[in-house]
Here is the input.
Amino acid sequence: MNTERGRNTARTGGSNRKGRQPKTYERLTHPLVRGDDGVLRRASWDEALTRAAAGFRQTRETHGPDAFAMLSCARATNEMNYVAQKFTRVVMGTNNVDSCNRTCHAPSVAGLSAAFGSGGGTSSYEEVEHTDLIVMWGSNARFAHPIFFQHVLKGIHSGARLCAVDPRRTSTAEWAESWLGLDVGTDIPLAHAVGREIIHAGLVNRAFVDRATSGYEEYAALVEPWTLSAAEKVTGVPAEAIRDLAHAYATAERAQLCWTLGITEHHNGTDNVRALINLCLLTGHVGRYGSGVQPLRGQNNVQGGGDMGAIPNKLPGFQDILDPPVRQKFERSWDTVIQPRYGKTLTEMFEAMETGELRAVYCIGENPAQSEADSDQAVRRLEALDHLVVQDIFLTRTAQLADVVLPATASWAETDGTTTSSERRVQRVRAALVPPGEAREDIDILCAMAGRLGHDWKFENAETVWNELRSLSPDHFGMTYERLAEHQGLQWPCPDTEKLPSSFLHARLWETDPERRGPAAPFGLVQHDPPVDLTDESYPLRLTTGRRLDSYNTGVQSSGYASPLRRGEYIELCPEDAESFGVAAGEEVRVASRRGSVTAPVWIDPGLRPGLAFMTMHFPDEVDTNQLTIEANCPIAGTAEFKASAVRIEKLVPAWT
Here is the structure.
């Protein structure tokens, strides 16, 4: 092993694509530690764990517990995430724990929690098959969520209408009866115009609004300026199309409003979510079978990681750290004192690396060196840490920067436990393969680390961890392993070991008894706020990012497998822009933003409109798209504005000239 920390491991840039294949990653099979020469070398488990624990201990003793942070894993099991957040709070004494939930759907959790008191999607996948209207807003689910999209197709075949709201005419939009191609960053004006039209057309569900919501009059005043014509000028969507969506949504007996990162990955992502939730409150499309709002999670357990408390402001079961009785319950169970304040979000952690406030990070199964916005800056911040420990199945770009690398098991094939999907369904996963080499279970590694730091933790198996979680989380108490197997998964909240939970949330809002109905769902009073990175003569194109069907996130797990669909990274332009810039399909160009530049070949996509470009983050070792993106963060959720960077296209001078 000859991996040096620092600039020597910088990405290639992808300037020569001829014959280039995506980088493949070999499975980690033994621990690594960084030697005195700065190179990672093979080590025994005892040496690696001792080195890792010593660095954490020194950080805590020298700089205090808040100089430590845990990055937990949205692909690992619920049980691992539970133990990881417990390690952070009990062993290290801080609430600085977060995961890639912050990168994608933290605004969904924040927006749903503000409206309904719960951060989960309100409906089951099955309900999409039995609804009348499906609105996919900022979501190319056919590529990014192909399993969910099978439910959408069943709904369409059963008679549901599909409407796609997206800046690009995606493969999802190809299945829709209407496509609203809005300008990037204008979701709030569009939602407000839909809401205003519903109000002016007399289509508000006043019985529901009066009984179950608050702030309607203020909301009506807020959206009043957003006439159909005013919204058309700002969003680029024809007024008639906005009107049609408003009437279709308000008059549908049942409707599902779904969104993904096209809504959340903005500097005002939480406000975007609130603007969409307002529409379901206005029409009563929530709390009923077939009607609800559904944020689609992109990874197998991003919902579960948050549910297990691997976030800085909630304990397991989505219980608030600032609630004294809740905190005391966990303190009694864990025999510890929990800080009565929120920890740092992932965004705040990286800012604290810059200032030196954060000195040590334990990173499990995440690759922030390539997944964070403005990736060069992210790498510089990780390099500034005193101590970085990475626990993973591959030697990722982040692992290459670590002081200690610990080989873990693959949670989907080599580990027992559970995961939680976007529909809040907890399901069993079981080990089918023996892990290679010296790779060890994540929970075993965490317990061994805790032991070296003075905490003798013994979990007989994953079920033991799960039962501890069940004893502390009312929403999960009724989910024994036996019941999860019997019913092929159960949705939370499931507080009873005998009754089956409802497939949808917030039926209480339809109760006539105020006590049974509970708190009103407030309208979100949010204002339009354009993208931070403005286009101008120097950077005339709006770059938005997303996923393709054949690849996964930063490509670490998918690049080693062939796909007939995979074509590597391109800068995708509409035919008009390609002609305007004088570039042809396949031509290598430089794509530059105010933060950096990359080289990539051109792909012509007629589904794009003039002024809009598209790239993915799947091939950062060839073309690091996140060198272009901007770290403009949602002040509520901390999610960066991956969807709205300003770029320009530069023709390359041939080497022979």
Remarks:
- The longest helix spans residues 45-63.
- The longest strand covers residues 597-604.
- Residues 589 and 651 are 5 Å apart (CA to CA).
